[in-house]
Amino acid sequence: MPKKAAANTLQLFLEPYWDALALPWDTESDILDEVFGQYHAQSELSSAIVILGIQAQFTAFEAKNTAFKTLYNSRNAESALRSKVSGTKLKPAAVASYIQFCTALEQAVNLTLSEDLILLFNKLDDLRKKSHLLEGGSKDAPDDVPAK
């Protein structure tokens, strides 16, 4: 098989896969697995790659794709384990800490008259009113928050 025929064979084989680079990485890797599977299954493709002298590159590319797929899957598994701790599970502890903070601030304002503490207390109270409104807790809207 001359080089031109080998190149045509390889081109016809790879043509449906030209747009694979625009796909998500995991899909691209799956498509490459398909390409390498067909490369090993079809003797005509294997001989065309040998004739063109790119067998070493093809083998290295296959190894890199396998390494990528292994790393990608392990990172996805690791990410899935981390995401089991959701914000919903953390919310009660955060709310309890915030309530403790607000209580401590209120006591500090009552016991030590400081303009900075009073300003902070008033800003937190405004924020509380706005968030209460956004959660649907009240029909009375503050002036600067539009009603739903």
Commentary on this structure:
- It is rod-shaped and about 95 Å long.
- It is built from 6 helices and no strands.
- The mean pLDDT is 84.
- With 148 residues, it is an all-alpha fold.
- It is 76% helix and 0% strand.
- It has helices spanning 3-14, 25-41, 43-52, 55-82, 87-111, 115-134.
- Helix 1 (3-14) packs across helix 3 (43-52), helix 2 crosses helix 3 (43-52) and helix 2 (25-41) packs antiparallel against helix 4.
- The chain has 2 domains: 3-82; 87-134, no CATH class.
Query: What is the overall shape?
Result: rod-shaped
Give the SSE order as H and E letters. HHHHHH
Distance from first to last alpha carbon:
74 Å
Low-confidence stretches: none
Tell me, rounded to a whole number, the average pLDDT.
84
Query: Which secondary-structure class do the elements indicate?
Result: mainly alpha
- What radius of gyration results from the CA coordinates? 32 Å
Secondary structure layout:
Blueprint: H1 3-14, H2 25-41, H3 43-52, H4 55-82, H5 87-111, H6 115-134
Would you kindly provide a brief summary of this structure?
The chain is an all-alpha fold. Helices cover 76% and strands 0% of the residues.
Give structural attributes:
148 residues, 2 domains, mainly alpha
